[in-house]
Amino acid sequence: MAVTACIGLGANLGDAAGTVRAALSAIGALPGTTLVSASPLYLTLAWGMQAQPDFINAAARVDTTLDAPALLAALLEIERQFGRQRSGEQRWGPRTLDLDLLLYGDAMIELPGLQVPHPRLHERAFALVPLADVAPELRIAGHGTVREAALRVGHDAIRVISG
């Protein structure tokens, strides 16, 4: 049976917008997975380590028969295909592609390397604003709906760059 999952996408190296668009296609081509909707692309300020290029962010809503660990493994493989090397990477630093499994149905998952809902999702406008475009009614455990969480975070510095 298919589960609705939501994925956050981000990039700030190279052709970041092109990479995010291509990654959306790659996500839709995963086995047992259908890309239901994708947000517009957003230009967002770097978060955490601010001395780096701005990010292009987006969100995807998929229906998938992959379980959460298999979906995460597939997302990490897509990152590798786009040149991301996690080893030696600076935390919150620049990247060719970052794919985060934000929500997986209404599951609460705590496994090594996989926490769903994403642990700081409710604090991050760069993830919430695009996510509200594709899944406003989904719930973030302990934080209400995506729409409600998005309204609580400041998002003045986020702007749509393409539909």
From TrEMBL:
Catalyzes the transfer of pyrophosphate from adenosine triphosphate (ATP) to 6-hydroxymethyl-7,8-dihydropterin, an enzymatic step in folate biosynthesis pathway. It comes from the Bacteria. Gene3D superfamilies: 7,8-Dihydro-6-hydroxymethylpterin-pyrophosphokinase HPPK. This is 2-amino-4-hydroxy-6-hydroxymethyldihydropteridine pyrophosphokinase. Keywords: ATP-binding, Folate biosynthesis, Kinase, Nucleotide-binding, Transferase. Residues 91-102 form the 7,8-dihydro-6-hydroxymethylpterin-pyrophosphokinase domain. One of its GO terms (biological process) is tetrahydrofolate biosynthetic process. Belongs to the HPPK family. Its EC number is 2.7.6.3. One of its GO terms (molecular function) is ATP binding. Pathway: Cofactor biosynthesis; tetrahydrofolate biosynthesis; 2-amino-4-hydroxy-6-hydroxymethyl-7,8-dihydropteridine diphosphate from 7,8-dihydroneopterin triphosphate: step 4/4.
